[in-house]
């Protein structure tokens, strides 16, 4: 995606379904909602950074936030899925390392392509977010809450989060080498 949002939050959602075609052919249907949301950060973000959290802490907390929101809308709980988490983490790290933000990576791989490359099959829904800060940023619970709030305020992202047919969830988060960006990925199926 072009452009950058400084001091704000960028988010994007994609749902990909794979439908069988004739013979060995398959057709892929992509419904893409890309939304950029600017959010004002609380003064505490610039005064003192919140406590740094480990990847596993962030994954568990993100699932807790997702299930909280699903409960509020009377949806069933999602379960953590190791393959979805692995693919989400790799994509977050790829975006942080190669400094891009998008559902399709510079090699042209879609979320479904990345699932297939990791040994899975079928379509997935994906939510993306990143946060930038000129003074440094790292994974923290307040950042996870900011991402979740942004996704829930966007119709496309909320549709992924609350889809009643989804039962599994994966989450990845990574910080850029210079420490100025954090990228987050949610995967659903």
Characterise this structure:
There is one protein chain. The protein has 189 residues and is an alpha+beta fold. Helices cover 35% and strands 26% of the residues. Strands 2-1-4-6-5-3 form a six-stranded mixed β-sheet. A hairpin with a 5-residue loop joins strand 5 (168-175) and strand 6. The longest helix has 18 residues, at 55-72. Residues 1-20 form the signal peptide. This is CAP domain-containing protein. It comes from Lyngbya confervoides BDU141951. Keywords: Signal.
Number of DSSP strands? 6
Q: Taking strands numbered 1, 2, ... along the chain, how are they ordered across the largest sheet?
A: 2-1-4-6-5-3
Rg calc: 16 Å
Please state roughly what percent of the residues sit in beta strands, choosing from under 5%, 5-15%, 15-25%, 25-35%, 35-45% or over 45%: 25-35%
Series of secondary-structure elements, N-terminal to C-terminal? EEHHEHHEHHEE
The chain-level mean pLDDT equals: 79
Largest sheet: 6 strands, mixed
Organism: Lyngbya confervoides BDU141951
Keywords: Signal
Pfam family, one: CAP
Protein name: CAP domain-containing protein
Task: Record the SSE blueprint.
Elements: E1 9-20, E2 26-37, H1 43-47, H2 55-72, E3 79-80, H3 82-98, H4 111-117, E4 125-132, H5 141-152, H6 155-162, E5 168-175, E6 181-188
Parallel strand pairs: 3-5
Antiparallel strand pairs: 1-2, 1-4, 4-6, 5-6
